[in-house]
Write a structure and sequence with these properties.
single chain; two-stranded antiparallel ribbon; Rossmann fold; 6 helices; 31% helix; globular; alpha/beta
């Protein structure tokens, strides 16, 4: 019987030298178009939290919206979009974080989280952890209790998972790809 990780290794497209030379881009759009792999991935990310009282799923723009919406639906939880600066219409709180060449800012609505709410943070991939760590800090600043961060893909050589765990956020991933 084929494991989910093995299946995902073959379903997720790897694109060498994108967006720049030396990078292997892990493209989950091929997973999203494979109904069985998509369903199995969402089911696997949901399984540990079924019946655990998760109240919100926070999805990071943009692929985290797709996965997070599906996970929220299965858990009977609300969905919280973590957006790039300037995309939300009401009063927001924000978190700036470092990129390879500069900085970026993510934000959520100021009133999106009630203190102590159980939240799962979701995105497609964890690499260096810059965006995920910023999102986790933003959610914690807003009063969330992050019960887990969930990703389809982990690039362990880049150390993002360990950075999240250092914040006290347990991390669940489905497949690892060595190299980046």
């Amino acid at each position: 019987m084929e494991t989910l990780a093995h299946k995902l290794e073959h379903v997720i497209r790897s694109i060498p030298d994108y967006p720049k030379s030396g990078i292997i881009f892990r493209d989950i759009t091929t997973l999203l178009t494979d109904a069985e792999a998509f369903r199995e991935s969402v089911d696997a990310l949901v399984a540990p939290w079924q019946g655990a009282g998760v109240e919100l799923v926070a999805g990071v723009e943009a692929r985290g919206f797709i996965l997070g919406g599906a996970i929220a639906h299965q858990l009977g939880a609300g969905f919280l979009p973590v957006r790039k600066k300037g995309k939300l219409p009401c009063d927001t709180i924000e978190m700036e974080y470092e990129l390879e060449y500069g900085t970026d800012v993510i934000e959520i609505h100021r009133d999106a989280i009630k203190p102590g709410q159980k939240v799962i943070l979701v995105d497609d991939l964890i690499a260096t952890g810059g965006t995920a760590v910023a999102a986790a800090k933003l959610l914690q600043q807003a009063g969330a209790h992050i019960v887990s961060a969930a990703f389809v893909v982990d690039l362990p050589d880049l150390g993002g998972k360990e950075k999240l765990e250092a914040l006290g956020v347990p991390v669940r991933t489905l497949v690892e790809f060595a190299g980046h």
